[in-house]
Design goal:
Layout: H1 3-7, E1 13-14, E2 24-32, E3 37-45, E4 47-52, E5 55-56, E6 84-86, E7 89-91, E8 99-108, E9 123-132, E10 135-140, E11 146-149, E12 152-156, E13 160-164, E14 182-183, E15 185-186, E16 193-195, E17 202-208, E18 211-215, E19 220-236, E20 243-249, E21 267-271, E22 278-279, E23 286-294, E24 297-307, E25 310-311, E26 313-317, H2 320-335, E27 337-338, E28 341-342, H3 354-367, E29 368-369, H4 371-384, H5 411-423, H6 427-445, E30 447-448, E31 451-452, H7 488-509, H8 516-534, E32 535-536, E33 541-542, H9 549-555, H10 561-574, H11 581-593, H12 597-604, H13 612-617, H14 644-651, E34 654-655, E35 665-668, E36 678-685, E37 688-697, E38 700-707, E39 712-717, E40 720-724, E41 727-732
Parallel strand pairs: 6-16, 13-21, 35-39
Antiparallel strand pairs: 1-15, 2-8, 2-11, 3-7, 3-9, 4-5, 4-8, 9-10, 11-14, 12-13, 17-24, 18-19, 19-22, 19-23, 19-24, 20-21, 20-23, 25-29, 26-36, 27-28, 30-31, 32-33, 34-35, 36-37, 37-38, 38-41, 39-40
Helix pairs in contact: 3-5, 3-14, 4-5, 5-6, 6-7, 7-8, 9-11, 11-12
Length: 733
């Protein structure tokens, strides 16, 4: 839609002197008589807080949602295909009074002014539509508005938001005298599409009372007991002009100090005005478990902030490792949902990595009501695709980052495919089918001898990521230029084959069957190339059967009768993961599919150095970026959580036919149930909740299965197939 749809004849305005670090307060007055309704559309770029007569109407949010706002000439050698900005709308009727009113917009920073990809300089616009006794009246931003400086003095989106209140006058209220402020100036407008979305905003989810753990020369340390995202609310007791500093970390040291290895540069400095002010950040969040306060201040509470996504699943069993893994995946995932996209981590980068996102979307759709968030993010992926080559970016919205053509780029197929599987939605398959086709063209253009061997010039071209250093302890095998174990070309060609296999199914669903022969020919070519390049006939393994290499081969139908046997034998012996983010998911799924659920369960619950139990017993409350918890990188990365989907699909057995979507026909086929004393869980489907509960006692397993009304369902165990009715069903095995 055009700007005029939301903002009528409003103009974008800003201060006369702007930089990417400028924060401003825009004030405009409007007059009403016997108000009936008042509706506001407003944007402040990067983020904004909006006040009506001093009342903050969007607390604890970071608006507008992230997007590819407009052309930024980055990347310089590609053409981003779509630009849009999401326009928030507020019903401000409760805050408007008869007579004079004031709107104050505090804005700056955010993704729009992010130093790694600056779209433009801070600016704001608003339109208020008032219906009162005089009819309908529009009030808009223009050069009659007043503009003043903010108390935000230094800002780095992923690191800090510093404030100086010592010379600050509260200017959000109606009675503030802004006569000495300068008039706003007209600034450049956006060349973009103005849109609405039902994607959930960030919001206050809960509050935590932090616990004081130590006091030393540097300050007082507080522990939230859980790694989270948001910020503390502080009461500033310091005299005017004195500074209070907050330093954040994901970990505590044994002596009660914060671990600076997991500080990630996160801090906040506040200059006091001596008025006992209560403060919290407005334009950034932090990813932390603990924090240290230097100066005279005390925490009132910690606000947990992330996208308002609801959990719509349950899982509990007799194994605490699996219980912890389920709960911690959800918590980690929520910590990484901000501003309308899933991220890799909530502090260091915060970017919507397509690799992490496509890998975990099945588990997310299984456990949470995140459909609206991912539908918006899928549009971001499509918007960021290069018009010229079909290249899918490593992050969406695009910010220059690292990745690979297969595990990252395949998001343009995998995410809409999982939409179909979970919700029965073919509209998104149709909408993004042209994008999928262009992506395949890109992989073709970066192939040699049937293998995907390169990516965009100058980029990393990763295969798998975050493999543990088991075979090569003296080398960093997670480095982009030292994939010494699992060849990137093998992994990327695997993803091309899997993507083409799914596109064959998609083509049947959306009446594009004429394309299938083309896809099948490409599949055969790529499989032959992988076999020729990486299969060792002397031992029947792919790449020495390490880091899940055989799982990649078996999953696309390669190898011989011994290849899978070697895979099983190897992991029975090793007993833990030696796999990166993609191979971990593929390995567990292949074991379940091939009937080796006992080994899959053994790996999922292993207590070695590479597994979820290692994290649990060492006190982790979110997943880490690496299996090795001693790495100084992020301790809030959801990507190793993809196998949580299989807790439901295989352990509880809530499944559907391979070609079906939307759970209109359900197959309950639990695997490995003799390994547990009990298990119960539920998940939401478009037709209603499906639940499975069982208990093992006296040599028998007693199942209770709940099926939604009007759904065809069966219970399958070995060769027995038992029809299920709507409601509760009881089966003994």
């Amino acid at each position: 839609m055009k700007q005029s749809y939301f903002f009528k004849n409003a103009i974008w305005v800003g201060s006369s002197e702007r930089t990417d670090e400028t924060f401003s307060v825009l004030r405009g007055k409007f007059y009403v008589d016997d108000v009936k309704t008042a509706i506001l559309n407003v944007l402040g770029l990067g983020f904004f807080k909006c006040y009506i007569n001093g009342f903050l109407i969007n607390p604890d949010t970071f608006l507008p949602l992230s997007s590819d706002y407009e052309n930024s000439n980055d990347p310089v050698d590609e053409v981003i295909s779509g630009h849009r900005v999401y326009v928030p709308e507020f019903d401000i009727t409760p805050y408007v009074k008869n007579g004079e009113n004031v709107i104050a917009i505090h804005y700056g920073g955010g993704w729009y002014c992010y130093k790694n990809r600056i779209f433009g300089l801070p600016k704001a616009i608003y339109h208020i539509c008032v219906k009162d006794s005089n009819g309908e009246t529009d009030f808009v931003s223009d050069e009659n508005c007043k503009i003043g400086k903010s108390f935000v003095t230094h800002y780095r989106f992923t690191f800090c938001e510093n404030r100086d209140y010592s010379q600050w006058d509260d200017c959000f209220d109606l009675d503030f005298d802004d006569s000495l402020w300068e008039n706003a100036v007209a600034v450049e407008s956006l060349e973009t599409a103005y849109c609405t979305t039902d994607c959930p905003n960030d919001a206050l989810i809960e509050t935590i009372t932090p616990v004081k753990v130590s006091t030393g020369e540097n300050g007082t340390v507080y522990d939230c007991k859980v790694n989270t995202t948001g910020y503390p609310v502080l009461k500033i007791n310091a005299p005017k002009g004195e500074m209070v500093k907050i330093t954040f970390s994901e970990e505590l040291l044994p002596d009660g100090k914060i671990d600076m290895e997991h500080w990630h540069g996160q801090e906040c400095e506040i200059i006091s005005d001596g008025k006992g002010r209560v403060v919290q950040p407005d334009f950034t969040w932090y990813g932390f478990r603990c924090f240290e306060i230097t100066g005279d201040a005390e925490p009132i509470e910690v606000k947990v902030i992330h996208s308002d996504v609801k959990i719509n699943s349950t899982f509990n069993c007799s194994n605490e490792t699996l219980n912890w893994t389920y709960k911690t995946f959800i918590h980690t995932m929520l910590c990484n949902m901000h501003t309308g996209h899933p991220s890799d981590c909530p502090h260091l980068e915060r970017r919507g990595y397509t690799g992490d996102g496509q890998l975990t979307c099945n588990a997310v759709f299984t456990t949470m009501d995140a459909r609206a968030l991912y539908e918006k993010w899928l549009q971001d992926i499509a918007d960021s695709q290069d018009v010229l080559s079909g290249h899918i970016q490593y992050t969406a919205p695009y910010i220059r980052s690292g990745g690979g053509p297969g595990g990252w780029g395949s998001a343009i197929v995998e995410v809409p495919y999982q939409f179909y599987k979970h919700f029965g939605d073919t509209e998104l398959l149709e909408k993004y089918y042209p994008n999928m086709r262009r992506y395949i063209d890109y992989l073709e253009a970066h192939s040699e001898f049937g293998l995907v061997t390169s990516d965009k010039a100058g980029e990393w071209c990763l295969g798998d990521w975050c493999c543990p250093n088991i075979l090569y302890p003296d080398k960093d095998i997670t480095s982009h230029n030292q994939q010494v174990a699992l060849p990137a070309a093998m992994v990327n060609t695997y993803f091309m084959v899997k993507t083409l296999q799914k596109m064959c199914h998609i083509a049947r669903l959306i009446n594009k069957a004429d394309d299938i022969a083309e896809y099948e020919a490409k599949i055969n070519l790529r499989k032959n190339a992988v076999r020729a390049a990486y299969f060792n006939a002397f031992d029947d393994n792919f790449v020495m059967n390490i880091h899940g290499a055989n799982a990649f081969g078996v999953d696309i139908g390669l190898g011989n009768g011994n290849t899978y046997k070697n895979l099983v034998k190897y992991y029975e012996k090793v007993g833990c993961f030696d796999t990166g983010i993609f191979a971990t998911d593929i390995l567990i799924r292949v074991l379940f599919e091939k009937g080796d659920e006992d080994l899959a369960i053994k790996l999922l619950t292993n207590n070695g150095d590479q597994g979820y139990e290692h994290w649990r017993v060492n006190g982790a409350t979110t997943f880490h970026e690496y299996w090795d918890s001693n790495r100084s990188r992020s301790h809030s990365h959801p990507m190793f959580g993809a196998p949580v989907a299989y807790f439901f699909q295989y352990l509880l057995g809530i499944n559907q036919a391979e070609t079906d979507g939307g759970y209109n026909s359900i197959i309950i086929e639990p695997k490995g149930f003799k390994n547990f004393e009990f298990m119960n869980g539920s998940m939401a489907t478009p037709n209603g909740e499906v639940a499975v509960c069982y208990e093992n006692k006296e040599g028998k397993t007693y199942f209770e299965v709940i099926i939604p009304e009007g759904v065809n369902a069966v219970f399958k165990n070995s060769d027995n197939i038992i029809p299920l009715k709507s409601g509760k069903n009881y089966i003994n095995v």
